[in-house]
Write a structure and sequence with these properties.
By secondary structure, the protein is of the alpha/beta class. It is built from nine helices and ten strands. Bound molecules: adenosine-5'-triphosphate (ATP). It comes from Halovenus rubra.
Length: 286
């Protein structure tokens, strides 16, 4: 069918006609880039012949907790990388708080209000939990990394870092070196360091992967709490369906680089196109 007259999630007329026979996605009312906290407009990303993200649009509203799910290779990580600036989209645009940020360097995005959870290899392994968070608080305030961060300015950002550690349940680990933390706590520290940039939008890439069921449940509660307490907008890629279904306001399902559905958890569970996509190659059941 033709997509020529469709309106996408951010309120633009879709311009492409790729001849797909799929029905239009049950997408929420259009959210224009200027009113979406995070907007993606007709983004495409190719790797040679591989079409990883295909004319994809999203409009995430302020305070929303949105999960992005899909079978392996659906394009979730590529989408995140293009949103965060780790990759440039081949085509299309990214908007943050109504302004286009498509060409901005990855390092600039935290200063504009977008943060991604720090990965284990991005932690300062020999520094304490408190120092890791404080360094990010101070860097965010100074706008640049400086060796002064390691010297005498311990009061700078210290109180704020203690508050953030408390928010993510790391108060008891303040003096522990990052490298000695269990995996789940390192993930929490990664979230704390993202929060230390005081973001409007927090992106979380598989925040519970490799965690025990108990740590997974704790992390899911933490994400929801952080959103509720701070009014943050949270976008997460997550494979654990219990997590996705229990904390998301809305779920976007990708398949072969395209959005096949954006809807409430209940509606997504009953969506036939979603079931078909998962049965076509998923390792999880929905
Ligand atoms: N750097 C790259 N070079 C070539 N192809 C890539 C690259 N990164 C991703 N791809 C391809 O793009 C497609 C989308 O991959 P992506 O990693 O974004 O999917 P995903 O939904 O995150 O998958 P998973 O759930 O397995 O992590 C896949 O076909 C993948 O092989």
């Amino acid at each position: 069918m033709s997509h020529a007259n469709e309106t996408d999630e951010v309120g633009h007329a879709k311009s492409t006609d790729r001849g797909h026979d799929q029905e239009p996605s049950p997408i929420e009312p259009a959210v224009a880039p200027s009113s979406a906290v995070l907007g993606v407009h007709e983004m495409t990303r190719t790797f040679g012949e591989v079409l990883a993200v295909d004319t994809l649009s999203l409009g995430i509203e302020a305070g929303e907790l949105r999960a992005v799910i899909g079978p392996n290779g659906a394009g979730k990580t590529t989408l995140f990388n293009c949103i965060m600036g780790a990759l440039n989209p081949t085509e299309g645009s990214v908007y943050l708080n109504g302004s286009e940020i498509t060409g901005d360097a990855e390092e600039q995005r935290p200063h504009k209000g977008m943060a991604r959870s720090f990965q284990s290899n991005q932690l300062f392994a020999d520094q304490t939990v408190l120092e890791n968070i404080r360094l990010v608080v101070q860097t965010a305030r100074q706008g640049a990394f400086s060796m002064d961060l390691f010297r005498s300015h311990y009061s700078v950002g210290r109180e704020r870092a203690i508050e953030i550690a408390d928010d993510v349940g790391l108060t008891a680990d303040l003096d522990a070196e990052a490298k000695n933390l269990p995996h789940g706590e390192q993930r929490r520290l990664g979230i704390a360091m993202a929060l230390a940039t005081d973001p409007d939008v927090l992106l979380l890439d598989e925040p519970t992967s490799g965690m025990s069921p108990a740590a997974t449940a704790e992390t899911a509660s933490l994400i929801k709490e952080v959103r509720d307490d701070r009014g943050l907008t949270v976008v997460l890629i997550e494979h654990d369906m219990d997590v996705v279904l229990s904390i998301s306001d809305r779920i976007t399902v990708l398949n072969r680089g395209e959005v096949i559905a954006t809807d409430s958890p209940d509606a997504i569970q009953g969506n036939q196109a979603v079931q078909d996509a998962y049965l076509g190659g998923m390792r999880e059941e929905i």
